[in-house]
Structures are given as structure tokens and as C-alpha cells.
Amino acid sequence: MTEVTRKDFDEVMVPCYNPMSIIPVRGEGSRIWDQQDNEFIDFAGGIAVSCLGHCHPIMVKALSEQANKLWHLSNVMTNEPALRLAKKLVELSFAENIFFANSGAEANEAALKLARRYAVDEFGEKKSKIIAFNQGFHGRTFFTVTVGGQAAYSDGFGPKPGDIEHIPYNDIQAFEAAISDDTCAVMMEPLQGEGGIIAPTPEFVQTVRELCDKHNALLIFDEVQTGNGRTGDFYAYQGLGVTPDILSTAKSLGGGFPIAAVLTSKKLAKHLKVGTHGSTYGGNPLACAVAEAVVGHVSQPEVLAGIKEREAMFRAELQRINAKYPIFSEVRGKGLLLGAELNDDWKGRSRDVLVAAGEEGLLVLVAGANVVRFTPSLVISPEEIQQGFARFEAAIAKLYTL
């Protein structure tokens, strides 16, 4: 087998990433080991993907069994794992129909295309406006990155898809001014992830739903990061008391195997007639078999309850460390999608914290320059939480002495 190092990345890979120097080679639970057999505790979870940690037995079993049966079919045919998974997602949500894709961006692209197609079919070409929110993130296809509210990701690629307006998140007045009968859809995260772990106020999310109904606009919830138990509810909308018309899900849906889905009603789904949309790999038997095992496990009431218990542990540990080394102004989020915002003295240094934690054997994330983000396995053990925060405290202590 060819030996590879981090230097090979600079030689053979497109430089749109800047990965850390370590190259992990194996994982188990919430721990990974690199080429030099250094151990790391994982509070990053592959950016909210590895919901059952690394190499969970139920995932390994599902993948191994399916690998000996059937790997791929065209969408000229369906397959058993896809049908079983779709039925399970319908059972767990408001949805009646499911479309499978491979990534969050693809699911969001499909959701936006469905919204536009429904509006054209039912109300005509004029009803095409999409409202989204500043600092939102919905993927990297040209349509989704334009709907996302971070111009740095969408500028510099030529003319953008049109009729998209961005407004501040949680600003009811701005939303009331923006929405009209020409609005076909509103796309929002029920808890902003990349934008800094920002929760909607109950009044805001209720107003969004009511005004969408008033103007015959579809409400799309991007639950790519919040779905599949991440917030302690199977889907975040279930903890908000507001139901979307379309929901996208990916990331932890496959626990690390690429898969995504769009959830919606029969009323809307019928507008994607044969030939209007598709995916070569969407509904792949391998992906659906793994996702079926993941969903079956995560949706158990005791697992969802355990997520809220682990959230309390994370918050307690962050409070304890911050009392000794005050660098955070607040901890935001829900379940195991948490963000610790740096105070004024530490503004702009979230990557410094990430690097320092890595040097102590702990993997964390950032959500912008001022927020340290935590998205660990949903079944991380209390012992791994304690050990991880011991390493986190050591990292913060070192930064304090610099």
C-alpha cells in the first residue's frame, strides 16, 4: 500500500481545504487514532455527521450485510432498503413522501426546485421569490450557496440565480416587510449552524409560519445539521411547535455514509413528475441500509433522552472551565449542537482554540471566528466527555499563558 502524508495533500488535492496535519487511520466510538497512533477524543463528529461515533457495530453490521447483497441500481428500479428507510422517515415526521439524494446541498437543491415548480404550477411564473437569512448556510451548489446568506461563499462565480432576498435572522419586522404574494418559499435553519449556533425565538418562527400560510409561500426547514436527533428531538421542528412544508436532512442520516433526503407532503411531491428531477446515486441500497440502522437506533426514546442528558454535561463542563479561564461570553444551542461564543478579549480566536485543543488530543470545531462549536457523537460516553474536557481545559490553560 502506498504511503501518504499531509504533504501529498498539497501535491494532489484541489486547495479548497486546509486540513490539519494529522491523518486519522482508524476510529472507535468517540476516539480516533492517527498515523503515529496518537489518540484523539472526538467532539467534532465529522461536523455533526458521526452521530453514533466511529465504526458503531450496528452500522458495520448493516453495511457488511448489504455489501454482500446489492450495491447499486439505477432509479429505473427501486430497492428494499430505500423503501424501508422512506417508510421509517414518514413514520417519524410530518412527511408523506421522500426523495433521496447524497448530500445536504443536493437535498436543499431539490427542496428549492420543488418549491419553485409548485409555485409555477399553482400560481404562475411571477411567484418565484425566495427569502433566506443572513449567515445561513445551505450547501455549495450554485443555487444553494446563493440562497445561503454568506456572500463570501457565493461571490466570484459570475451571475447568481435571481429573485433571492436575505434578511436578518430573528428580525420579525424585516420578515414582514420582505414577504409578499410573490414569495414562493422561505428557507431557514431551525437552529443556525455555520452562522454561529443561533436559535430562533418562538415568536419569530411562529410569525414565519403564519405569514407563509397567509401568502401561500412554502416553508423549507434545512435540517441538514439539526436533524436525526442532534437537538434532542428527532427533528428540530418538533421542539419548536412549527411544522415546515419541506424538510431537508443529511449529515448524520447515514452516520458517516453519504445520504440525504427531502421530506414533504403528497400535495407538493406530485409536482416533481417523472423526469423533473433525479439522482444517479440517490436511494443507493448501501447508503439506505446504513441509514435505516442509524435512524432505527437514534429514534429510540432512550437515545433521544440521553442526548439531553449529555447536553447538560457539556454545559456544566464548559461553565466549570470558563469559571477558571473566562474566555466565553455564552454557550448557545440545543442538544449536542452547541456553540461557545468568545468574549471581547478573545474575539476572533476560535481557530486558536481549535488548534490548541488538537494539540491536547481533542477535536472541536468552529462556527465563524468567534464561536467554538461542539457536535460530538449522540451516544458519547460520560467518561469520554470528562476526558475530553480535561484535554480542553489543558488547551485553554496553555492559551492563557501565551
Description of the structure:
- It is built from 14 helices and 15 strands.
- The protein has 402 residues and is α/β, with parallel strands linked by helices.
- It folds into two domains: 6-55 and 301-401, Aspartate Aminotransferase, domain 1, CATH 3.90.1150.10; 58-298, Type I PLP-dependent aspartate aminotransferase-like (Major domain) (Aspartate Aminotransferase, domain 2).
- The strands form three sheets. Strands 4-10-9-8-7-5-6 form a seven-stranded mixed beta sheet, sandwiched between helices. A four-stranded mixed beta sheet has the order 1-2-3-13. Strands 11-12-15-14 form a four-stranded antiparallel beta sheet.
- The mean pLDDT is 96.
SSE topology:
Elements: H1 6-12, E1 24-28, E2 31-34, E3 39-42, H2 45-48, H3 57-67, H4 80-92, E4 97-101, H5 104-123, E5 129-133, H6 142-147, H7 151-154, E6 164-167, H8 172-178, E7 183-188, H9 202-214, E8 218-222, E9 246-249, E10 260-264, H10 266-269, H11 285-298, H12 301-324, E11 328-334, E12 337-342, H13 350-359, E13 362-363, E14 365-366, E15 371-374, H14 382-401
Parallel strand pairs: 3-13, 5-6, 5-7, 7-8, 8-9
Antiparallel strand pairs: 1-2, 2-3, 4-10, 9-10, 11-12, 12-15, 14-15
Helix pairs in contact: 3-11, 4-11, 12-14, 13-14
- What's the CATH topology label of the largest domain? Aspartate Aminotransferase, domain 2
The CATH first-level class of the largest domain comes to Alpha Beta
CATH superfamily of the largest domain: Type I PLP-dependent aspartate aminotransferase-like (Major domain)
CATH architecture of the largest domain: 3-Layer(aba) Sandwich
Morphology: globular
Rg, nearest Å: 21 Å
Helix content: 25-40%
Number of strands: 15
- The helix-and-strand class reads alpha/beta
Largest sheet: 7 strands, mixed
User: Segments where pLDDT lies below 50 for 5+ residues?
Assistant: none
| Overall structural domain count | 2
Which band does the percent of strand residues land in?
15-25%
Helix and strand run: HEEEHHHEHEHHEHEHEEEHHHEEHEEEH
Q: Mean of the pLDDT scores?
A: 96
Number of helices: 14
User: N-to-C terminal Cα separation, in Å?
Assistant: 42 Å
What strand order characterises the main sheet?
4-10-9-8-7-5-6
